[in-house]
Amino acid sequence: MQSYSFQRIIHYFLLKKNVSLSFLQVKLICFLRIMLSDAELGTIEFVRNERSKHIRVRILNNGLKVTLPHPASEHDAMKFINSIRTKLIQKQEALGKGLEKRNILIDENSHLQTLTFVVNAKPTTRKNIYFSLKNSTLNIEFPTGTDCSTTENQQFFWNGISYFMRKEAKRLLPGRTKQLADKFGFTFSEVKIQSSKTRWGSCSHVKSINLSLYLMLLPPYLVDYVILHELCHTKEMNHGDKFWGWMDKVTDSKSKNLRAELKNYHMPQ
Length: 269
Description:
Blueprint: H1 6-16, H2 21-27, E1 34-38, E2 42-48, E3 56-60, E4 63-68, H3 74-83, H4 85-102, E5 112-113, E6 118-124, E7 130-134, E8 137-143, H5 151-184, E9 190-194, E10 201-203, E11 208-212, H6 220-232, H7 241-250, H8 255-262
Parallel strand pairs: 2-4, 6-8, 9-11
Antiparallel strand pairs: 1-2, 3-4, 5-6, 7-8, 10-11
Helix pairs in contact: 5-6
């Protein structure tokens, strides 16, 4: 889940959208979200969506994200949450156990290989955490005595790693998508690199392909599998027999095995 501070929103509107501050003050109203803390469920975030028809609850490992339709209130949502509280707690605990298995701990003993660089974390005499990518190695230097296992430090490490993975993904994946499209006769409108942690890729009805930067954690042949999967969606938007017929055609009838192998890989949470 990606969150935005007011500072980042202001930076986006003023620098990217070139709008006046008065206009920005009006637009910020759209970003206001109500959050409360629950002793059992963690942080509960309420987001209003005028297009929603029902209250929707997304379970996170540290809270809930609740989408409110018009005219439902936070009180209405809490009544619904309390009616299924036990089930939510059980699912949240199961999610947490799953995340523990998925998370990749970054410290001096870790061995993380991405598609284009290896991560080398080491303690030094530095007073801060420093990242540098050189000769296919991302060096992470941190002060000696740092507790790398804390959530804060792990998030900091992964923010840096993700920054460089995004740069590499933007450099390589659009070109590879075009190569595969040309090879098998597909067409697409554009390729976007996103930070999705729930899906490796997606394809819209206008043939716009979204690829997660975390594809950089996969071996090359599985990266190709995901790209081909989305290219096949430019022909068939569903996962019916015709779609899997396309997948078998472009993977030499190996789509089932590749799909099963992909399930062994997880994105860091």
